[in-house]
Amino acid sequence: MQTVAEIDIDPALARVHEHGWQSWTPTATYRVDEAPHRSRHELFRLLHCRADAPVPGPEAFQGDGLLAVETGHGAVHVVAAPDGRTEVPTIRAELDGTRLRLTADAAVDHLVDEGRGGIDGALARWADGVVSRLALPPVRPAPTVWCSWYHYFTDVTERDVDENLQAIEEVELPVDVVQLDDGYQAAIGDWLTLSDRFASVGAMSRRIRDRGRRAGIWVAPFLAGADSRLAAEHPDWLVGGPQAPVSAGHNWGQDLAALDVTHPDAAHYLTRVFSTMRDWGFDYFKIDFLYAGALHGRRHGTPDPLVAYREGLDLIREAIGDAYLLGCGAPLLPSLGKVDAMRISPDTGPDHEPLEGELCLPSTRSAMLTGAARAFQHGRFWVNDPDCLIVRPAVERREQWASHVERYGGLMASSDRIADLDEWGRQTTHRLLGKQVPTHLVGG
After folding, report:
1. Which pTM value belongs to this model?
2. Mean pLDDT on 84-101
3. Is the CATH number 3.40.50.1580 carried by domain 145-433?
């Protein structure tokens, strides 16, 4: 680690903003006397954080490609990757009395901002500069969405989607897209082979479109589950190869590997999956668990994981054309310019507190902490997705969660079974889906 600067601070007023690697990595602004959140489990670090980065001790703050310090003397120091699309340095701040030592493991830009708004204002101005310098494309407004995930999870059926399609119409919810989430596929990686709960997602897409809505679908494009035909029949398509595939974690009760999109046959498969779904009439895609596309490991083509990751996103974009693209579980800075909307927090959920206090895991508390800290990205890098509005009576602190979505939501999506909503839930869902979203959530 090379020293970037040593700066004087007021220990009573100074704060440090840690920016996490991907959508689910905890991101927050801390007092300098606070201990930042650190995951206690290696599996959670792999799935939700940056697996190849060193874990700092409790005396250090650490950001992935971005860290900001509000000194308490009127200035904010922003230390960031010159181009986070190609390299994401690890940046640290370590306290020594009334000084913070800033270090990084690669070249960084060091900006001193003395404008208004503290850390939030400085990050907004930094983001404006990134957009201008990298000539990022204009942000496309998001449609409103109903998503199957937070009621049905992986048990969703074709009948469930049809029921809610009818209910959306009956209660006149302003929903543009009806999005099928995880559960339609036979296995993780076998996206064109359906589970026994679905006869035809193409026919389902047609029914949605015949009712005047757009059809959306969920895919985890860079994952291959150990139980999938993809992994069994094409182990050479995996990062690391058939003898030593790189672990992408463990989920759905199985080990996971990453798809090597630099392998020509794997790239062709990825293109075929999304081209087929586009032909089925889907024009809204939620692509999830994208961290897998940027894992380190031997590849058929480029050894650079960020180059491979962006090539994979390019393959998807070429296959879906102008369809709307939402990223999730994604390395954030490497995704610049590649998606229309981005999940900027861990998953929400019916519970307020996450399992074992792990702030990378699903809960309204996890989603609110990181979603608020990344508000400055909305309207600049992409449309922020704070995650779905869930307001059925069974959701803990649903009023608090609805207030967060209203304040920080760019992409507005409902994920309740419509029939389970009480009067307050229906009114709140209708109001938020019809809400005009501001261009920026944080001013520059």
Report:
1. 0.98
2. 96
3. no
